[in-house]
Design goal:
This protein has a single domain, classed as TIM Barrel (Alpha-Beta Barrel). Helices cover about 40% and strands about 15% of the residues. The protein has eleven helices and ten strands. An eight-stranded parallel β-barrel has the order 1-2-3-4-5-6-7-10. Strands 8-9 form a two-stranded antiparallel sheet. Helix 2 packs across helix 4 and helix 7 packs parallel to helix 9. The chain is globular and about 45 Å long.
Length: about 280
């Protein structure tokens, strides 16, 4: 076993047929099935997804839903320690429309409280693609919105884990605006490869703030591919990871097809073979 991989989970939906044909989405109505499948393969965690579509129907956003998640965790011993809050890609906290931004702030507060009940440690806030922090004005709006959330996050012991497409220096500069240890980083091996970033430089800039890691492979400036067939330099990644005292989880957010299970098992085996992770 690679000593750096201490716990391995899977992104929600990767072990189920696509929800409404979408590549990544909360599988509304049949999400419970994934817990049993994940346990059978050997995954320890599922990273839940909060979509913008039908957000009010997501179990993360209701008392009964939270109870059902806790029940599935208890039955299968597959935990939920993180949320990929894709909601904020469609309705960014730094949206120019203040009404949209205000609503997103309320969604985040509710998600934080419910995450505490479930035992979730990391809420990943994606600032990529349509929610990218494209200029200084967007970054300043984002900082202004997120700063007041630090106290609540600390009180609830929940990290707000930022995923951005900023280069290492720019991302490090953004993080310097936040002094609280609960403003952390989600690191994505595939996205960094697609952007052409050097893992060594990334970890030098903000490695100690990483609290959640997505395992994925991508070609330069292109989409996801099978683990080991893209431009992600996993050897450099693990070399960089060894420089910090990372104790968080790894989430397989790897390439998927329509069905999900077989191709995820294939890539799980690749990870075992290449990085000596025993089940």
């Amino acid at each position: 076993m690679n000593p750096l991989i201490k716990s391995l989970g899977v992104m929600q939906g990767r072990l189920l047929p696509k929800y409404k044909g979408r590549y990544q989405a909360h599988p509304l109505g049949y999400w419970q099935e994934e817990f049993v499948i994940a346990a059978g393969i050997g995954f320890e965690y599922i990273e839940f997804i909060l979509d913008h579509n039908d957000a009010e129907l997501n179990p993360l956003m209701s008392v009964e839903g939270v109870k059902e998640i806790i029940s599935q965790v208890s039955k299968t011993n597959v935990g939920v320690r993180s949320v990929c809050a894709d909601y904020f890609m469609e309705a960014p906290l730094h949206h120019l429309d203040t009404a949209i931004a205000d609503t997103s702030m309320e969604v985040l507060k509710k998600l934080m409280h419910n995450s505490k009940e479930i035992g979730i440690r990391d809420i990943v806030i994606p600032c990529v693609d349509q929610s990218s922090l494209t200029d200084e004005a967007a970054q300043q709006r984002f900082v202004k919105r997120l700063l007041p959330m630090q106290d609540l996050a600390e009180k609830l012991s929940v990290n707000l884990s930022l995923e951005t497409d900023l280069d290492p220096d720019a991302f490090g500069s953004l993080l310097s605006e936040f002094t609280s240890p609960v403003i952390t980083v989600n690191y994505d091996t595939g996205n960094s490869a697609s952007l052409g970033y050097d893992p060594i430089k990334e970890f030098e800039s903000y490695g100690t703030r990483i609290s959640d890691i997505h395992i994925k492979d991508r070609k330069l400036k292109r989409g996801s591919v099978l683990l080991g067939t893209g431009d992600a330099d996993f050897n450099a990644f693990f070399e960089a990871l060894a420089t910090i005292h990372y104790d968080g989880q790894f989430i397989m957010q790897a390439f998927r097809d329509e069905e999900g299970v077989a191709i995820t098992k294939q890539q799980y085996s690749w990870l075992q073979t290449n990085f000596n992770r025993s089940i």
